[in-house]
Amino acid sequence: xxxxxxxxxxxxxxxxxxxxxxxxxxxxxxxxxxxxxxxxxxxxxxxxxxxxxxxxxxxxxxxxxxxxxxxxxxxxxxxxxxxxxxxxxxxxxxxxxxxxxxxxxxxxxxxxxxxxxxxxxxxxxxxxxxxxxxxxxxxxxxxxxxxxxxxxxxxxxxxxxxxxxxxxxxxxxxxxxxxxxxxxxxxxxxxxxxxxxxxxxxxxxxxxxxxxxxxxxxxxxxxxxxxxxxxxxxxxxxxxxxxxxxxxxxxxxxxxxxxxxxxxxxxxxxxxxxxxxxxxxxxxxxxxxxxxxxxxxxxxxxxxxxxxxxxxxxxxxxxxxxxxxxxxxxxxxxxxxxxxxxxxx
Length: 345
Description:
Layout: E1 3-8, H1 14-21, E2 28-32, E3 49-52, H2 65-84, E4 88-92, H3 106-118, E5 121-124, H4 127-137, E6 144-146, H5 162-169, E7 176-181, H6 190-197, E8 204-209, H7 215-226, E9 233-236, H8 245-251, E10 254-256, H9 266-273, E11 278-281, H10 286-289, E12 295-298, H11 305-315, H12 320-328, H13 332-344
Parallel strand pairs: 1-2, 1-3, 3-4, 4-5, 5-6, 7-8, 7-10, 8-9, 10-11, 11-12
Helix pairs in contact: 2-3, 5-8, 6-7
């Protein structure tokens, strides 16, 4: 029996590329979905499974309220027609709401209520995310399936030493380096990280690397970093190529994810995939994957939670091999198998 999964999106995002590359069942075909336009699910047939990751990509236009509402109307209509043709939908809930606009945007709330009622299965990364999704939309737990967020160990190159990485980035071999790597957006809490770092004492440095989608936010962060001693800052505000990421991860002693709010963090798993301990708020799936052997969780409501964690990590001992072993146990193949089971259901 042959089955088809339409992936929206199929390419262009490391997560989806790793997931669908792990679908190795010869009787299952993964096809590309368009994700936009008047007929976003064109080509779907009865029995097909449409797998959506970020529903807002199908309707949201950040520059136009009118186009967002027109897109949402079309999205609801096309999903309904596709279901009537005999196809089914599943959703991987990477977040409760889009980070841009969030729950405050009415279009997002309507889209989520509609979509959570029509999908067959909602995939989540861990028990905390499952609880949050079930509570937010009153979803029966039988429709929520927990899957692992796979690791990045074999996805990005990792063949440079710590010394070589630090030489390339101009970092002292003895300085304790706190690192943040990834897309830089307001919900990730960089302002809090920079303010907290300014209170850290001793021989330490802060490294921030990643692209900014907002020129205004880039200006805000640049100004905050400029107030710190220049020898304590390594700032790289740009998109990092896949073969560059290893330098920034290998060079840091501890990776920080200072999110204001989060459901799933691929950045934390990226750090674990390089054997780096993670400092993270006790939120979302971070509380499911970060523990005493691979990092430190802090209370985001505490005014000194992050500061204390940044101090504690310098006195802690972590095993890189043990962190890597834990990351290796998070397999894309298990998530792919769950997707295939949804197709066969």
